[in-house]
Specification:
The structure holds 2 protein chains of 2 kinds. The two termini of chain A are about 30 Å apart. Chain A is an alpha+beta fold. In chain A, β2 and β3 form a beta hairpin. Chain A has a domain of about 60 residues: Alpha-Beta Plaits, CATH 3.30.70. The longest helix of chain A has 5 residues. In chain A, the strands form 2 sheets. In chain A, strands 1-4 form a two-stranded antiparallel ribbon. In chain A, strands 2-3 form a two-stranded antiparallel ribbon. Chain B is α/β, with parallel strands linked by helices. Chain B folds into 2 domains: about 250 residues, Rossmann fold, CATH 3.40.50; about 140 residues, Rossmann fold. Chain B is about 40% helix and about 20% strand. Chain B is built from 14 helices and 17 strands. In chain B, strands 4-3-5-6-8-7-14 form a 7-stranded mixed β-sheet, with helices on both faces. A 6-stranded mixed β-sheet of chain B has the order 11-13-12-15-16-17, with helices on both faces. In chain B, strands 1-10 form a two-stranded antiparallel ribbon. In chain B, α2 packs parallel to α8, α4 packs parallel to α6 and α8 packs across α10. The mean pLDDT of chain B is about 95. Classes of the chains: A alpha+beta, B alpha/beta. Chains A and B meet through loops of A and α10 of B. Bound molecules: iron/sulfur cluster (2 copies). The site of one iron/sulfur cluster has 13 residues of chain A, from α1.
Chain lengths: ~90, ~400
Amino acid sequence: MTIPPGGVCAPGSTLVNKTGGWRTFKPVYDYDKCIKCKLCELLCPDASIDPRDDGFFEFNYDFCKGCGICANECPKGAIEMVLEEK
Amino acid sequence: MRRDYEKEKKDMVVVEGSYAVASAVKACRPNVISAYPITPQTHIVEELSQFIADGEIPNCEYVMVESEFSALSALVGSSAAGARSYSATTSQGLELMHEVLFNVSGMRLPVVMTIANRAVSAPINIWNDQQDSISQRDTGWIQLYAEDTQEISDMTAQAFKIGEDPDILLPVMTCMDGFILSHVYEPVVLLDDDLVAEYLPPFEPELKLDPKNPKTFGAFADPNSYTEFRYLQQQAMDKALKKIEDAADEFYDLFGRYYGGLIDTYETDDADIILMAMGSIVGTIKDVVDKLRAKGVKVGLLKVRSFRPFPVEAIHNVIKDAKVVVALDKNISIGLNEGALFTETKATLYNTKIDVPVIGFMIGQGGRDIPVETIENIVDEAKKVIDSGITVESQFTDLKEELL
Ligand code: SF4
Ligand code: SF4
């Protein structure tokens, strides 16, 4: 790729830059506790939580930065932050 | 400098420097102007807002903002959308833009901004020196310095031409000494609209914000590509060296006025002592050169028009045969006890095996007057360096010991 002046690019470029590699902790669901309230999906600053057909949610680890906001905000404690392993 | 004053006389009008700049901006047909008034820049943007209100600049919008940070931020958007964009500021206002200055340059937006140079706080001081723009030297803006009001007026058209060139695409600061040039009334030939239209083509960037063909500006660059962005900016600066000279030459062909490209020289050919400076002090130095030449002193002047890109080669070629070079700076890098022109000039000589002593004087800070006698004293100091070989590297000028 050659860089255009100013690095101007087509829309959607953020899909190519997978920012999940920065993560130290990753969020993990405990679906037994989840009440499908949707708060985690709404509050994730990186839009890294996707809805599933069954009403639950799942993480898109390609973009989740591991900030822990979802775990902090979940009213049921259904998300745990666990240390990433190699 | 090449000008035919006799020919120009019939077209000259006596106007304030700020009016000459505003009138030049008008002739350049900007699409968006955004600025926050601050002394001594105020008259420039007052005149421009009046022009727009009177319908004298068609297809141009004046964006009123609450600060200089917003003024330049607004122009990031307008310039990215393909609008010819202009602002003016000074001192604290320019320092408040610091963060945005990097963005404008990094996004390669050819905004043009006039700086009415002024000292920075604290202590509060509204008078002229060049600390404000020099402090922004590493932001990736081209920086040009004008000697008089005619030059700052003409430089405005050159700035758009240089910055908007597809090979360059860099923002340009045109710097004029606050009050000394911004508030002085002197005879000026205002830029002719038709000639400027011939000189300056419309701004048509290849890449711009367009809803029909969406683009992302100012995107993210990780460690894999950030270095390359900086490299490309530096390359554009290198190309600007030639473009600045071409813009001055083309301007001369059409308008018949020339003040130098990257630099200009005055009586330097056989000079033992060469004084280097930027801005309006150059005029005073020319008088001193005339006076001392009449007494047989071999002294000359090197006027630096372009401080960024810094014209290493052009300066080197002029000063290499001198016995001593003196850099006069209306700024200081505190902690190094040097002005920027002095530091950069020394750097251009190192590694070339040319051993010309360079001495520096910090002068005219906070609007302190620079009389002819002060320059003469500096030349005397330079003579001492030739005689003794002892170099006192850099010093404040005319310090009032009784206040210390
Ligand atoms: S850890 Fe942060 S980034 Fe990852 S899913 Fe939760 S809120 Fe989103
Ligand atoms: S915030 Fe907690 S309870 Fe609500 S949907 Fe997300 S995981 Fe389930």
